[in-house]
Amino acid sequence: MALRAFRGRIFAIAVIAGVLLSGAAAPAAVDMATGIRYVIPNGTVDQCGTKAAAALNAYLQNAAEAAPGSGEWIATGPIGAAGTRSTTASGTVHCYPSGKGYVVTFTCAVQTPDNPYDAQALCLDIAHNFSGKPQTPLPTPSPQPTGCTTANLVGTWQSDNDPKLSFKMDENGDLTGSDGVSGNWILTGSDATITYYGNHSMTLSPDGKHLKGGGYSLTRKC
Amino acid sequence: VKLRHSVACFAAALMLLSAAFMSSPARAALDTVIGPRTVVPNKPLSDCSARAKSALDSVLQNAFEAGTGSGEWIGAERLSSGGDAAAEAVIECHPVDNGYAASFTCAAQVPPSPITASMLCNKLVAAFGAQQTASAAGAAWH
Q: CB–CB of A128/A138 below 8 Å?
């Protein structure tokens, strides 16, 4: 009985410790903006929809009406994003009939810091495209440096101690070990944390080629 | 000694197992949906605004009107006090005949948000009281 209770305590402690050790942070956030509204005295909801789709597709992609005839249009992005995992921005345009014309509103959401612009800037450009006003070009993300840069851990890393162990780290912060186990990496200055069977604190060398600490010693292929 | 050894092995295995399960990629993606529109007859726009604020406050937090009198209400869910938003939603109120239409737009970052944008919008529609008062939901304008 006592052994069973003891094992129960060990089980709880072990699970909590495992979760804490592996807690990978996702430091991104949702930024949402609304409030831009145009009142168009003459026009149909269909005309609004046509302009809504064009305005959304100028900055996002795959604009579609949420339900046929609803006047509610949605698109996601950025342009070129493939698959839901790459979606970091979205916009909606709502067309409401009003008298002989319509009212149109704009709502945008952006995931930060994956985008170098906020939801308000995206919505302003979509709205200005809709109304034919001048638009401010949205900033584009800086391309990730490649090679043995100290700016990131992107690349293939080989264990110095185990020839069978290597890691592929990508620009999204994802990591895949040669055993197929996936995890994450984070780099702040020269301090790195990799999540692979728990979190490991490591240090990146000044030449960006070596990563040591937390029980691992890795060399980047570059 | 044998007992200690077995307990230590048991604990180590459990830690490894739970760490392995939790070390899946935490790559967040933005999930956005437009929820079902709710049309409420014979009620003033102020009723929509009151319901929108109440629904956003109950499902998310800190609802506010995007511009005074705009009828566009926004709320956010923060996973920690003062932290970044993991989910946000907008409820727009628009006059229709003698009543109003309320539309729902929801965005969630999954993970860390425990619910999808669709689930969030469904919760908001329910909180808005759509089931009792809506005469039409998701209806076309023409």
A: no
